[in-house]
Amino acid sequence: MRFGVVTLFPEWVEQLTSVGVLERASQNGLISVTGFNPRDHATDNHRSVDDRPFGGGPGMLMQVDTTEAAIIKAREALPNAPVVYLSPQGRALNQPLVQELARLPELILLAGRYEGIDERLVDEHVDLEVSLGDYVLSGGELGAMVLIDAVSRMVPGVLGDQASAEQDSFAAHWLDCPHFTRPVDYRGNTVPEVLRSGHHGRIEAWRLQQSLERSWDRRPDLFERKRLTTTELSMINEHLSTLEK
Ligand SMILES: Nc1nonc1C(=O)N[C@@H]1CC[C@H](O)C1
Fold it and tell me: Of 86, 94, 171, 236, which is the most buried if we count CB atoms within 10 A?
């Protein structure tokens, strides 16, 4: 999968493919991340890339012509890519959206700086606005990098064990269960016996029970959007009965 990122800091975003699983994925040709810098299209002595907002107010906006030139360059390089603008006004990034985006062969991410970009550029070039969360960042680059990481994990071959992509928390809708490794006894706390039983059916059931209990206790909102299986329902009822005691 090919990612193009329109950003004033291409060297920062391109660092994504220099560590961990994304480095290996990039070396294996499974993903690529290419920056497109509006500053490369600046024509004045100061190579300016920002401009003052009409109507006054604090801060600046990204300049229209240099930003658009970088978007056009990105679209020429990735002609089949939708353009995703990272902004607090966008659709919340979650696993279903990640899985939707992972089906694409290529994607262009527009990372704003200053107070953002001119609305006419959004109307002209942006296919989807996506928000990392309800807070204000200094730029859209972190949102772009989070999106690239989450989407890349869905690309076949990127994770050694593809099953872990599906089993990741949220990929299965619920919060993840607790995990344990050596030593068996850590400061008097021992690893749950079931995980050392070698009984895969019991282990799977225990992990689902733990996920459901954590989800119920920490993120009850997750139950609003999910039809429970009969197994999940009985597990939650078991949990509730312990809470009522
Ligand atoms: N939350 C978010 N999810 O995606 N992006 C943001 C975000 O705060 N963007 C900043 C707003 C103005 C500046 O241009 C960049």
Answer: 86
